[in-house]
Give the backbone structure.
Amino acid sequence: MEDSTRVRSFPLVYLGLVAAGVLIRLLFLLLAGELEPYADENFYLYHGLCMERFSLYQGGVAYLWPPGYPFFLAVFLRLFQGEAVFAAKLCQVLLAGVVGWTLLLFANRLFSRRAAFVAGVVWAVYLPFIGFTHYLWPEMLCLAVSLPAFYLLFTWWMDSERGVPGNGRLLAAGLLFGVALLIKEVLLYFSLVIAVLILWRHRRFSWRGGLSHVALFLLSVIVVVLPWSLRNYEVYGRVAPVGITLGANCYQGVVRPYACFDYPRIDYTELWDEESWVYRRFIVQPPGWPAERVHAPNMCDESTANVKLAMGLTMEHPWWFARSRIKRLANWLAPWSFFVRHHGLGRYHGLLNEAPVRDVLVVLCLLQTAAIIALSVPGFLLSLRQPMGRALLGWLLLYGLATALLVGMSRHRMVVEPFLIVLSAGFVTGAGRPWRGRRLAVGVVAAYWIVLVLLWSINQPEMSTFLDRVWHS
Amino acid sequence: MAWSDWWRRYWLHGLLLGIVVAECATAWVLHQSDEELRGALERGTPFQQAFAVHVLSRRDDPQPPDEEVTRRMLASPSVLVREMTVTKNFRLDREDMGQSKYLESLEDPSERVRCEILRFSGKGVRLTPEKLRRFYATLEDR
């Protein structure tokens, strides 16, 4: 009963923390003013506009994003027309409160109230998350739906272990997970990982019960996603459960010459000369590399053909593929975020772009990101003891890492970033000496920190070039 | 196991499975074959025509956008269909089959603004908040 008691008597100070986080985001939204949409933001807005105007989701030219975020924007366009962008961002600010609250609950369940407090404080001032409340990317909306789904799943696990009956939470988790997939499809295959985890959790009780719960979870996900899958089958004549993005990502991550969207508008030929170690090891492609995308009239066929092309190249040059993924990993683990990128691109105006404020914010943002990346792994290995928590977060981190190896950029870290905050909070508030008697785990943590420094040094030229732009913008 | 036990354990599974079957049945009923869509192109309402082009240009054997179809859609009495036809992602303007001329011929300034915003916003041109306001202002003008 300890966990339930902890949650029920969650003090008001935590509500205050969430409110403070929301107010800080609101302040940044007002200070950022009318940001001009950049890159994919234009396309999301355009798809939303077409959806609102024509009641059809037209999809892109080489990809089909899930419809959730364009639909979200279309609703605001219908309601607020010319002021829809501000209204949608305001809604994202409020939804960020859901993220903050769920993150606090997770930290409380996995560690302690102190950890929840620290996680809440970090979340409230965490600039990469603050940035995504006033951008038109679907990350914040996806987190506001997927985090409660994970929390419901986790609490269902915990309570069913104590014999508390009821499948309502499992059903709600599946439905929310389905909605999250309609916003961002990155977690699609994680639903299968969850199914395996449910079976694993039941291994000591009964397989039949486990299968029953797996069926319930997957059915509740399918119920939400299926209408859209059937629409895709009607329109494209192919099976596409949520979106059609894998081919485009394979092209970006394997086929085309190296580029990282965290550092746009960089001339890579000037960044590294051809003799440099990083360029020769991690960037340059083998001679005669086909950099062209495969085109096909049907978008599904085009995606499949590009996946096959990337797979073929990988099979032909496995060593190059392995080496090039190190750079993708470095991008994913870099202390970087779209908040810094936006400053480098000169997107902000007014107070947020004035020298002392801008410089402090950018340095703070870099330090925040570096800290949670560095402290989350010791939090997982040394402080997290709860077995289901270890299983869920461990697989989620591995899944996030695996998907990031394809394209690798800071935005793709967003799905796991709330958990990095929770784990870091667990580590810094860890009672006693969690490392005592755990030599292997301590060794792994030390190795992780060394690898992290090496990976950051690989990214240093791109980061320095971009930071120069920040200081001189 | 008694029937009541089965019901207690699996009614939720049954309900979800029923919804899944209903969703599939709805899709099966609403499905339109290529022939039916081509028929809608010939005889449908302007919106059915537009929808038919939308689906046919994305299917297994995409129908190349026909100049006659484009011309008819641009002459549609429905403003929505005319706007839809000039958008970048509608798959009718791969080789610009009359959309540019149509834009030039537009005398209604509000329709021209909307069509231009829709046509160019999807092609890397920024859909700024200002443009969005202009877009909706033209709707209010009408």
User: Anything to note?
Assistant: Chain B has a mean pLDDT of 83. DSSP finds eight helices and no strands in chain B.
